[in-house]
Every structure is written in structure tokens, then in C-alpha cells.
Design goal:
The chain is mainly alpha-helical and 148 residues long. Helices cover 61% and strands 5% of the residues. Strands 1-2 form a two-stranded antiparallel ribbon. It is elongated and about 80 Å long.
């Protein structure tokens, strides 16, 4: 996160933008529309500062670090299945308080089975590698004792 803190006046100015979801003195959260517009313009060859200026932001208020951070996030997220959308909404990590439908329960159990199968496969590989290393170490010990 950037060291530059927003002043109360800067926060008020940033809140006026339709592309800002929320802003505090330390951080700013942009809308999905901003990210999509930014990415489309960036692919056309425009500089990040120019894009933000065209979208109504003062680059001096945001600072270069925040502008480059928008670029990095867009580059990182553009190719993922969810695209530029914020995926944190659906994956909060909170415990589900309602009971699951039978279909949801089946889905979860299938996922858990796949996960456990992968875990078992991984553990078997580790066990195999450990045994192989032990055999090699024993061979080295035996060959040293044989030479004496």
C-alpha cells in the first residue's frame, strides 16, 4: 500500500467519481467499470496516468504508486476466468449459517473427495521419494563399510 495518505478534501473529491466504490485515507476501491475501461484503454497503448486523467482522476492525488498498482492488478487479473471482477465477494471465507440444499451438499462432498484424492496422491509421492532417498543412503553406507 502507498505511504501517501489522502486528505479529507482529496477523499471528498475522490468520492464524487462514479468509478470509486469506497475510499478512506489509506485506500481506494474502484468499480469494475473503471477496471474494464482502464484495461481497454491500456491495451490501446495509452499510459496509465493519461487513462486515469481521462477517467476524471487527478494523478497527483492518486500518486504514481497507486496508478501503477491499478495497472498491475488489471494485467494480473485480465486473463483469469473471473476477469477483472472482484472475486472476494463470493469467497469471504465466512462460515455458512444456513443449511445446504441436497445439491449443494453433494457439490461440496464431491469437491472434498477430489481434494482428498489429490492429497493422498501427493502423500504417496512424498513417501516414495523418502523411501528412495533412504535406499540410496543405505547403499552409500553399505558401500563405505564394504570398502573398509
Amino acid at each position: 500500500m502507498s505511504v501517501k495518505l489522502f486528505t479529507a478534501e482529496e477523499i471528498e473529491e475522490l468520492r464524487k467519481s462514479p468509478y470509486v466504490r469506497k475510499v478512506s485515507e489509506k485506500a481506494i476501491t474502484y468499480t469494475e467499470e473503471l477496471k474494464e475501461c482502464f484495461w481497454e484503454e491500456y491495451k490501446k497503448g495509452k499510459s496509465p496516468s493519461m487513462i486515469m486523467r481521462e477517467l476524471g482522476f487527478d494523478p497527483r492525488i492518486l500518486g504514481n504508486d497507486r496508478i501503477m498498482s491499478i495497472k498491475k492488478q488489471c494485467m494480473k487479473n485480465a486473463d483469469r476466468p473471473g476477469g477483472l471482477r472482484d472475486l472476494r465477494k463470493g469467497n469471504s471465507g465466512r462460515v455458512l449459517t444456513r443449511s445446504l440444499t441436497p445439491e449443494e451438499e453433494i457439490q461440496r462432498l464431491k469437491h472434498k473427495i477430489k481434494y482428498l484424492e489429490q492429497e493422498n496422491k501427493f502423500l504417496k509421492k512424498i513417501e516414495f521419494i523418502d523411501k528412495k532417498a533412504d535406499r540410496k543412503q543405505n547403499q552409500v553406507k553399505n558401500s563405505k563399510s564394504f570398502k573398509k
